[in-house]
């Protein structure tokens, strides 16, 4: 809790284990920047951190309006944390709309820091306030800190010759300065960032720097804060760390996969929220030899990736749900011609355009089955932002070794959320190299002659003498690969395609279980729900509950050790940010009466919600036992 | 392999072991034969040649070529060729498509492949009908055309393929006819020699669902008078008597008779394939029987850097710029931004 002790002297320090702050303002107020700067500094300080950016799809919704509110939540701790926090302890509200949208989430007695200058009649009306909440008693249950930020930055930026609009834009750095003081953070990282970002624009850089310092000084010298807070560094395992988002980790994972496979990476992509940052990042790596194409549409993007894969490169594409829907037919072709391919789906709330910037886990069944006919594809999903790195390499390892397209299911929360990442030693990462089919001077090359172990077919790339052959979407004659309409052959080929994907299960690590291998309740999750589930299970276990957590990274094929694991628990609970997609698969495959916990609000589960659901199941089971 | 070491290949080397399964009498047989005959002339080893097709009768052609071949999905051959050529600039990439495949379902990819100048040679078989699906209207079917799906006649204005690709900045544009085998061979040859996106429209007859689609002007008995064979640097003259020509009046073409009304050869439009402005290419592409003779030949051929060349150039430039700062260290790349160490 960050609520100041009312009796504390100014300048005293209060020790805290964990703090959750939400920065909120207009989309033009720079809240994402403020949040990410606070995150970078906090990570560098050594806290464990977890973040949740929450911004509207509109680039600039009307200023001051409720839909235009952009938020960034960060939780940081001296201990190990897995989520950006259920409810903020501190709300920084840059205008009335930000206050209105976020107040309900704040913990009772939490702190509110507002820019009073934005609380004018127009903004209050736009936010739907009939009277000024700062002036009536409606915020009585909170600790309210009123700071005229816009006025303060006008003073700080005097003499720089900037327009009043330019000066007003620095107020987010003022707010950041206040927060840096409150939580004993250094301003050095942000000062460096300002100097780099505004290089050549000296007056703007100086204005932002002054605003930052003014905020810090305000905290230090004014009487409104009775104390400031200390959240000691976390005891993370030894290593070199950086702060990383899921999209950054995904892009770096693909760069590393290309290195480990000793093969060129080719990305074709069509811009789509929240996946575009992967395209941006890989496009900036031309010096690493990575080829990228911004395609004319989603279909062209996966088409170009298939073309590159046919040519022997690591062809891949990145998208989100609506784009994934468009790629279905080409994915089917990749299944038929059995070429390695990685498709990244950074899931977002749907159906249709849905809520483009909000998270969801709704594309699992589409990834599994969203193609004509039986068309099996391995599907994997990282559990945390940093894990996107290793799972990106995994996606390629499976694609290359099993000659198959692979779907990598990230989501908006993983993509834009951040956490500290223990940077691996490149030299320690194992090779994932595979060889092309060698040139031949004998006639009769068989493009569908399979590896007896994996059932992978040879990768016979154009340019290889003696392997000239034809492939395509029409059914293949087993081994020879020529067109065949033979009924039994088609049946056999369908079985072979299924078996090839099923055998990927021989090639994946065992499923880890957190807690006892038997018990009353197993909470089974996948993807970005990891943090909320793990935190809930930690709390339940600390209260002596016989609850364990398993988290699936491999969704197709499912791990072979899963069935026994499920059957060692009285109950199985499956929280998912969808209507129960993985649960449908688990129930069908294992005949386990898994119970769902399904919320689709465009945001992650709160720890407390999962905890309460688990308690209700355990409670009912206690009742039943009586 | 140097040029002198290249094996001498013949048409036979490019014939695959698969039985050709187009309808007897289909124009595709001629196109396939000319394709197989042309391939040995490029001096490219056959393992470096790739044929990519979409869906439709034309889509079967790669199965009959003894090269690398990829029969893909409807309308998307250009996308696959784009990725293949970007990944493998060393390959010679041919795209085989049809009027439905390229202009309807694949229309978007066509224009973008052309504007990017992807180094692919696209041969579009235009029979003004959907053949493989047994006879529906295509985007080049003439207005009023009665088909199974348009029993009262189409109400849609057809696309002029060459006009479209000219607007999309294609760097090589040509037209030929399936039965005019020598001319077709020559056009394939020239498409193959072009560096960049080449678009060759072949007027092809579907004797089952749209027999005689082009007969009005391609038939031997009338073609001299009703078609115009374009030749670079030469005045546009046609007719069995070689006495008719095209004069350009501002931006309006006119059919004139040499020797009448004081018209001489010097008044005729001289064809320039290399005209950097595509306006005249588009004027030519819109000339159609019976108002005009139908032009065949190379409409446009302009030099332009290809997509793969520019992509490789950017990569080489970025690598060189980076190399000046010392070798690439992936460990450092992973650790970019602020880092901290926990002991």
Short description:
The complex is a heterodimer of chains A (626) and B (343). Chain A has 21 helices and 23 strands.
What features would you describe in this structure?
The complex is a heterodimer of chains A (626) and B (343). Chain A is an alpha/beta fold and 626 residues long. Chain A folds into four domains: 12-231, Pyruvate-ferredoxin Oxidoreductase, domain 3 (3-Layer(aba) Sandwich); 242-428, 3-Layer(aba) Sandwich (Rossmann fold); 435-507, no CATH class; 513-625, Rossmann fold (3-Layer(aba) Sandwich), CATH 3.40.50.920. Chain A has 21 helices and 23 strands. In chain A, the strands form five sheets. Chain A has a seven-stranded mixed beta sheet with strand order 11-10-12-13-15-14-21, with helices on both faces. A six-stranded mixed beta sheet of chain A has the order 3-4-2-5-6-7, with helices on both faces. In chain A, strands 18-20-19-22-23 form a five-stranded mixed beta sheet, with helices on both faces. The two termini of chain A are 39 Å apart. Residues 1-9 of chain A have low confidence and may be disordered. An eight-stranded mixed beta sheet of chain B has the order 2-1-3-4-8-7-13-9, with helices on both faces. A three-stranded antiparallel beta sheet of chain B has the order 10-11-12. Chain B is an alpha/beta fold and 343 residues long. In chain B, a hairpin with a 5-residue loop joins strand 5 and strand 6 (136-137). Chain B is built from eleven helices and 14 strands. Chain B has a domain at 3-213: Thiamin diphosphate (ThDP)-binding fold, Pyr/PP domains (Rossmann fold, 3-Layer(aba) Sandwich). The model of chain B has no long low-confidence stretch (mean pLDDT 96). Chain B is globular, with a radius of gyration of 23 Å. Chains A and B meet through helix 1, strand 9, helix 9, helix 11 and helix 13 of A and strand 1, strand 2, helix 2, helix 4 and helix 10 of B. Strand 17 (470-472) of chain A pairs parallel with strand 2 of chain B.
């Amino acid at each position: 809790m960050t609520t100041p002790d009312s009796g504390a002297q100014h300048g005293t320090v209060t020790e805290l284990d964990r703090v959750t702050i939400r920065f909120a303002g207009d989309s033009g107020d720079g809240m994402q920047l403020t949040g990410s700067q606070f995150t970078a500094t906090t990570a560098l300080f050594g806290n464990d951190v977890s973040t949740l950016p929450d911004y509207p799809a509109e680039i600039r919704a009307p200023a001051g309006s409720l839909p235009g509110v952009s938020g960034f939540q960060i939780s940081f701790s001296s201990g190990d944390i897995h989520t950006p926090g259920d409810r903020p302890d501190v709300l920084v509200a840059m205008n009335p709309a930000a206050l209105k949208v976020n107040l309900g989430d704040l913990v009772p007695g939490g702190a509110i820091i507002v820019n009073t200058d934005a609380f004018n009649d127009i903004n209050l009306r736009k936010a739907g306030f009939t009277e000024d909440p700062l002036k009536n008693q409606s915020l009585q249950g909170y600790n309210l800190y009123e700071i005229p930020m816009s006025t303060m930055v006008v003073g700080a930026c005097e003499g720089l010759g900037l327009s009043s609009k330019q000066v007003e834009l620095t107020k987010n750095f003022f707010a950041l300065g206040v927060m840096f003081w409150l939580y004993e953070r250094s301003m050095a990282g942000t000062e460096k960032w300002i100097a780099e970002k505004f290089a050549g624009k000296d007056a703007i850089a100086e204005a932002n720097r002054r605003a930052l310092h003014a905020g810090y000084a305000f905290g230090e010298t004014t009487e409104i804060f009775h104390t400031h807070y200390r959240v000691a560094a976390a005891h993370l395992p030894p290593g070199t760390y950086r702060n990383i988002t899921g999209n950054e980790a995904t892009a770096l994972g693909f760069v590393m996969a290309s290195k480990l496979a000793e093969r060129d990476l080719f990305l074709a992509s069509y811009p789509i929220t929240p996946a575009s940052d992967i395209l941006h990042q890989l496009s900036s790596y031309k010096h690493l030899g990575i080829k990228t194409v911004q395609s004319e549409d989603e279909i062209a993007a996966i088409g170009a990736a298939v073309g590159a894969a046919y040519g022997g490169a690591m062809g891949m594409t990145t998208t989100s749900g609506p784009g994934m829907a468009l790629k279905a037919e080409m994915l089917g072709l990749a299944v038929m011609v059995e070429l390695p391919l990685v498709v990244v789906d950074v899931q977002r709330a749907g159906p249709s355009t849905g809520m483009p910037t909000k998270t969801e886990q709704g594309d699992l069944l589409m990834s599994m089955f969203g193609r004509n006919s039986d068309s099996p594809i391995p599907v994997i999903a990282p559990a945390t932002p940093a894990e996107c790195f290793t799972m990106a390499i995994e996606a390629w390892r499976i694609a290359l070794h099993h000659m198959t397209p692979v779907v990598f299911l990230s989501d908006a929360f993983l993509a834009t959320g951040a956490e500290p990442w223990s940077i691996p030693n490149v030299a320690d990462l194992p090779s994932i190299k595979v060889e092309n089919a060698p040139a031949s001077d004998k006639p009769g090359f068989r493009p569908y002659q399979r590896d007896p172990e994996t059932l992978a077919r040879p990768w016979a790339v154009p340019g290889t003498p003696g392997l000239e052959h034809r492939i395509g979407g029409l059914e293949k004659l087993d081994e020879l690969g020529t067109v065949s309409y033979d009924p039994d052959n088609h049946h056999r080929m369908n079985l072979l395609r299924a078996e090839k994907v099923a055998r990927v299960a021989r090639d994946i690590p065992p499923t880890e279980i957190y807690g006892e291998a038997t018990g009353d309740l197993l909470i089974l999750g996948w993807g970005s729900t990891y943090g909320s589930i793990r935190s809930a299970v930690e709390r339940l276990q600390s209260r002596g509950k016989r609850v364990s957590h398993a988290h699936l990274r491999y969704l197709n094929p499912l791990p072979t050790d899963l069935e026994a694991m499920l059957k060692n628990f009285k109950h199985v609970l499956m929280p998912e940010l969808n209507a129960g997609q993985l649960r449908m698969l688990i129930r069908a495959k294992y005949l386990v009466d898994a119970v769902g916990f399904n919320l689709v609000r465009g945001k992650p589960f709160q720890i407390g919600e999962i905890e309460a659901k688990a308690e209700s199941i355990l409670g009912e089971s206690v009742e039943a036992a009586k | 392999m140097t040029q002198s070491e290249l094996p001498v290949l013949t048409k036979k080397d490019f014939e695959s072991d698969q039985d050709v399964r187009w309808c007897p009498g289909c124009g595709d047989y001629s196109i396939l034969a000319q394709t197989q005959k042309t391939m040995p002339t490029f001096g490219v080893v056959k393992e470096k040649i790739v044929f990519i097709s979409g869906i439709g009768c034309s889509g079967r052609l790669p199965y009959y070529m003894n090269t690398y071949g990829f029969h893909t999905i409807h309308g998307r051959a250009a996308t696959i060729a784009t990725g293949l050529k970007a990944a493998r600039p060393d390959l010679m990439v041919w795209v085989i498509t049809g009027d439905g495949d390229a202009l309807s379902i694949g229309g978007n990819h066509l224009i973008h492949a052309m504007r990017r100048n992807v180094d692919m040679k696209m041969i579009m078989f235009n029979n003004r009908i959907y053949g493989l699906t047994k006879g529906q209207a295509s985007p080049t079917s003439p207005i009023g055309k009665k088909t199974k799906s348009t029993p009262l006649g189409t109400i849609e204005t057809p696309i002029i393929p060459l006009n479209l690709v000219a607007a999309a900045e294609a760097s090589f544009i040509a037209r030929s006819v399936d039965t005019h085998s020598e001319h077709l061979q020559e056009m394939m040859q020239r498409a193959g020699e072009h560096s960049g996106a080449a678009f060759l429209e072949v007027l092809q007859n579907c004797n089952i669902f749209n027999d005689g689609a082009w007969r009005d002007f391609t038939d031997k008995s009338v073609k001299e008078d009703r078609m115009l064979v374009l030749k670079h640097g030469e005045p546009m003259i046609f007719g069995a008597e070689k006495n008719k020509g095209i004069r350009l009046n501002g931006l309006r073409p006119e059919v004139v008779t040499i020797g009448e009304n004081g018209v001489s050869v010097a008044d005729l439009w001289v064809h320039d394939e290399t005209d950097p402005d595509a306006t005249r290419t588009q004027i030519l592409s819109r000339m159609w029987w019976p108002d005009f003779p139908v032009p065949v030949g190379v409409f446009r051929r302009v030099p332009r850097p290809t997509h793969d060349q520019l992509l490789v150039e950017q990569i080489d430039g970025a690598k060189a710029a980076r190399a000046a700062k010392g070798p690439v260290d992936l460990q450092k790349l992973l650790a970019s931004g602020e880092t901290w160490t926990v002991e």
